[in-house]
Amino acid sequence: MYEWIHQLASGRIKIEGRRKGMPTLNWIGKDKVLNHHFEVPFHVLERQYSFDEAGKHEEDNGSENMIIHGDNLLALKSLLPKYEGKIKCIYIDPPYNTGEENWVYNDNVNDEQIKKWIGEVVGKEGEDLTRHDKWLCMMYPRLKLLAKLLSVDGVMAVSIGFHELNPLVLLLKEIFSIRQVTVVTVQTSGGKPKDGFNYVQEYIVFVAPNGFQPNPSLEAMNEYASPYHAMTLAGFNQVTRPNQVYPIYVDLKTNALVGVGKSLQELIDEGKYIGEKNDFEFDYSSPKGQSAVWCVTNKGDKCAWRLAPTSFLSNWQKGYVKITPQRSDKNNNLYSVQYLADGIIKKIESGDLKTYRISDVDAIPTLEVYNFKTGGVNITTIWTDKLYYTNRGSNELTSALGEKGVFPYPKPVKLIEDIISRVTKENDIILDSFAGSATTAHAVLNMNKADGGNRKFICIEMMDYADTITAERVKRVINGYKAEEDKEELLYDEELKPSNLNNAPQMLADAKAAKKAAKESGAYDSVGNPKIVDNHLQVIGKIKATEEIVGTGGSFSYYELGEPLLVDDKLNNAVSTEKIREYIYYMETKQALPEASADEPMLLGVYHGAAYYFNYEKDASTTLNAAFLKSIKTQAEAYVIYADTCVLSENKLQQFHITFKKIPRDIARL
To answer: For the DNA methylase N-4/N-6 domain, which residue ranges apply (predicted)?
Structure first.
């Protein structure tokens, strides 16, 4: 935090301007990277091999899981033709910019100042005065591409430390301006002392749609709770919501809705009430055999209904309103009226929640939800589970690879599983563009095994260990492995209470005796010193044990970044025709290329009434002429046709609503 205060005070990093009410950051190089993601060339992703439970294959096994080795900026751009707007969950763990990570700035931005940074290790605070500028220049274009890949209802989660938390939040709010940005604090260790403070936390910054409703946390849910809520709207009344103040009439025999009376606003509009709104009295008179119910809280205070009369009647007919006998004796209502919130209704109508009718009476359509559970719906902003500790992630990686220290500070699998489980369904795609040791892939495979899901992962890693660590871990997770771990055994445990603190010296002596006896027994590989854990004096012994970790099953394909699609703004002849077709169709429609038509091999697809044709042969020049027109079988409102040349007249093109586009390639070389 001090680093950023220092940078702001020195004027090197600025918070300036206001865009849609939001402050924005300015830094060295920002104007050069604002549009850099447009300049990044598309590359082909070249599959190197595929892997599944049967082992490694040269042939494609059809897996939708991907591990990509290469610069993540280039890889993200190359994913756009197939995956723009299709990624439901993005998790990234970028450099924290602590000054200890030895990360290198390598983006080829056309700017003299930025070119000086290329290949240089980003230095420590006080040694490298542009370290924050470099980090922001690195993050900005990647976040812009991630924003394109994220689906409309998708969620991104970014792990970060305190060093770049504040600029990251501002950056995300600028790029994802129509989404909500929320910081979650995660306790990741027992503490890391620094300058008089003990840092026990890191952060996850969530980027989610407005109105986001996470999946419930199964671990935090109550066994049963009613999905219905009181329809009274406290805080509003006949003055502020006169259109939502009206009587509801209930049949005293059946407890069914009979109808509603006119709202206060309707009475005013019709001249049937001319007094002050504040003086309006609720009239409990009703037809014989009926009871009037007014919007009054359980405390007896006048309020308003949550629904206007037409919405209320519609919801009743659909079964989304419940009427039950009143339990409160603080108002004159004989009945309580409850409703289902929009989120519950959406889940009922989508089939996510199953329902049944609560009554055999035809006049009562009210629905109840099977096995409704609640209590763990919202994501809390402080996570303290010890399963999130960084040392757990290190132990998991050591177990999987059989070697210590191969990767610094890997995230624990449980942390990533909990993120994914809250924001995805079982067939969604999860992207990690800073894949590191492949914790995200590990989490996805675990979850698929647990619930039979078909989640897909795309992991991008630029470092040379992409195959030896990233992919190797995934191979072992798929096939299973032997994990050596320390099994802990409690050798001494005594709770410390006010009543026994006088016996503390004796308890400590007993604990030391327990340690000595355990060491002398030779049954333990190590025995710890007495320590206090959660107000208990404990001695813990450890035994090294080998556990057989059963494989999750699954598969993936391993890719390298291949040829650029364009060279000097011309199609690269080394790229396959299928990849070029995919690129052309994406650039025209921002959609993934449909399956090729056997009847029309030159047809790319139809989008918004326009048919797109790519009249292309790798080793020959093509022409848009009358013969090609005769070959077209697809009926469309308009046509976009690529070819090397066109011999049709302008009138003919206009007659058939054809837009001709010249294929960008060097015909002289054909």
So the answer is: 87-465
